[in-house]
Amino acid sequence: MRSRPSAAVVMDGNDVFFWFDNWLDQGKLIDITGDAGTIHLGVPRTARFSDIVSDGNWNIRDRRNRLFPSLFRQINEAPVPFSENGKDLMLWRHSDEQSKIYFSSSKTWQQIRDKREAVPWSKVVWFTQGIPRYSFITWLALKNRLSTGDRMRNWGMQQHCTLCGEPDET
User: This protein's superkingdom (predicted)?
Assistant: First the structure.
């Protein structure tokens, strides 16, 4: 299973929006509940954590909600952010076990790409002194993806070889 790079946030409650920040690790709550969520949970659309936390407890109404009972339960089980914890801190995932405060495009690429075995001809096509245009055309030829006459005929286009006039170019 491929993991996606993400950022972990340490919240202080003053800068985090209840509906529009991904603080529950499920996405934005407004996207989950829609506009009806603000009514059913009794939390204003512009609410920050500091607006809905009092005395270390969540201040969310439970209107015997039939629409979002599991979400209501998850919110109540989530730890309440305290301003004593400090400001928000953005951490970038560098691997499954490691997060750092700086962004690395190479680490992000390693996490989002599909990793496959190297093919035996890769060093022949992709080498440091190779001309990228020729390497790309060679790669297309090895993958049988060039727009040759037989492939274009499958697309409904009839074309012959411009050099020799052969109708069955391969």
Answer: Eukaryota
Per the DSSP assignment, residues forming a β-bridge with 7 are 92
Question: Do both 73 and 24 map to the same domain?
Answer: yes
**Domain count of the fold of the chain:** 2
In a domain, 132, yes or no: yes
Closest CA to 16 of 106, 113, 115, 87: 87
Closest CA to 109 of 91, 95, 98, 99: 95
Q: Where are the beta strands (DSSP E) in 96-153?
A: 99-100
Global pTM value? 0.39
Domain final position from 26, 57, 80: 80
- CA-based radius of gyration for the chain: 27
pLDDT in tens, the chain (170 residues): 344 444 444 444 456 777 887 777 777 888 888 887 777 777 888 888 777 777 777 777 765 556 677 777 787 777 776 656 556 677 888 887 888 888 999 998 988 888 889 899 899 999 999 999 999 999 999 988 887 777 777 777 777 777 787 777 66
Question: How far apart are the C-alpha atoms of 106 and 120, rounded to whole Å?
Answer: 24
